[in-house]
Every structure is written in C-alpha cells, then in structure tokens.
Amino acid sequence: MTAPLLSLDSLAKSFTMHLQGGLVIPVVSGISLDVAPGECVVLGGPSGAGKSSILKMIYGNYRADAGAIRVVDGSETVDVATAAPRRVMALRRNTIGYVSQFLRVIPRVPALTVVAEAATAFGLSREEAEARARRLLTLLNVPERLWSLPPATFSGGEQQRVNIARGFIADHPLLLLDEPTASLDARNRAAVVDLIETKKAAGTAIVGIFHDDDVRERVATRIVDVTRFAASAA
Ligand SMILES: Nc1ncnc2c1ncn2[C@@H]1O[C@H](COP(=O)(O)OP(=O)(O)OP(=O)(O)O)[C@@H](O)[C@H]1O
C-alpha cells in the first residue's frame, strides 16, 4: 500500500463547557486512521457523532485532547496536534485544503478574485490562478455575469459553488470536505463528484463528509463510521 499522507493516531476530543460549571462532553476517542494519496475516506455516522469535529482537528481549528495528526509536508511530517500555530498556517497554505459548508463572504471582492486568491496564496501566478478560476466557475455552472460581483448577494447554492471552486483551485495534497454538496441541485452535485474524481486521479488524499448517499457511494474509496470512535463520559 502507498504510504499514508495523513495518519490519525489514538486521537481524542471532548468539549469543556466553562459556562456550565466545567461540564465535559466527550465526543470521540481512540481514532486511528490512515489516508493515502488518491484515497477518498468518507466519515459516516449520525448527526452529532463528531464528523465535523474530526475534520476541524485535522485542519487545526480544534485542539485534540490526545493523540497525533501526522501530515506529510514535503520531506517533513508535521503533527498538527502539537505544531506551533505558524507551522499549521504554513501547512494550510501548502498542504491542506478545506471546503466548509458555507462561504466566508469577503466584502467587496468579486467572485473571480475570491476564487483566484486561493491559488495565488498557494504560489500560482495570477494568470494561471485566473485561468483556473474561470474554468472552475464554468464547470460549477456559476453564470459569467456573476464573476465580477462580490458573492455577498449570491444565492446559497451560488455561494457554495464559489466556495467549492476556491477549495479545489490549488493542488493541496490533502483536501478536507465538510458537506460541500449540501445546498446543491443534482446537476451541480454531479459537477462536484467529477471534481473529486479528478483530484483522486491526480493523487490527492481526501477526507470528506457527505450526507447524500449517492454522492458518498460514488466518491468514497472507504466509508468510516465514526460511531465506532464514540467517547463515553468518564
Ligand atoms: N465548539 C463546540 N463546543 C461545544 N460542543 C461542540 C462544539 N463543536 C461540536 N460540539 C459538539 O460535539 C458533538 C459532535 O459535533 P460535530 O459537529 O462534530 O458532529 P457531526 O457528526 O459533524 O454532526 P452533523 O452531521 O450534524 O454535522 C456534538 O454533540 C456537538 O454539539
């Protein structure tokens, strides 16, 4: 088997509610999972099982309570669980892409620039970035008349497609997808499935959450039910 790009080792997460007298809510524990280049591992399980929390730990948004999150970054391996914030920021720039369920709207910046900026931040030239942005917005059926407008007034589905274009434009070796197809119609879901297949074929390692069964079945190389990592209250 190809060496993993991402390795979760005995990872655990609970939340401490400081305003509730320090109440501890255990979420997941003992997560060990390897993801190789070209694989798409889908996290399954019911609402509240901890799927998004796992993605947020890998991206460094949530701190892990225990365990390691090893990510291969060029010739180095970085443990996100213990890395300094500056190292995590560099990982996000070069190695880990993340598509959340909603676009964080940036005021006054046109949609084409919102998308292209993710590629220039990754190190591509402005020309290449804009060419890729145009191609992706076309593939995702975002009408050209919208490209020069800021996405603040776009519909939910249009904003989400700008968000997906932004997440897919660079060549990050690891891509985290948190329900990217949630607000899309069948045609655009199919466009996202095609984009995921292209990334897999290019050797990107993907960890994703998809509520649509048809999308999940089409893109998953493996489905991991996270309820098997359910943590119990101490
Ligand atoms: N920042 C937070 N503070 C407190 N509790 C949180 C926080 N984030 C998540 N939780 C709790 O952790 C549990 C897991 O949430 P998470 O969002 O990871 O689940 P999920 O499996 O992705 O659910 P869904 O499918 O509904 O999105 C939930 O009980 C949630 O309330």
TrEMBL record:
Domain of life: Bacteria
PROSITE patterns hit by this protein: ABC_TRANSPORTER_1 (PS00211), ABC_TRANSPORTER_2 (PS50893)
Name of protein: Phosphonate C-P lyase system protein PhnL
Gene (UniProt): phnL
Listed SUPFAM superfamilies: P-loop containing nucleoside triphosphate hydrolases (SSF52540)
MF GO annotations: ATP binding; ATP hydrolysis activity; lyase activity
Start and end residues of each ABC transporter domain: 6-234
Key words of the record: ATP-binding, Lyase, Nucleotide-binding
PANTHER family: ALPHA-D-RIBOSE 1-METHYLPHOSPHONATE 5-TRIPHOSPHATE SYNTHASE SUBUNIT PHNL, LIPOPROTEIN-RELEASING SYSTEM ATP-BINDING PROTEIN LOLD
Similarity comment text for this entry: Belongs to the ABC transporter superfamily.
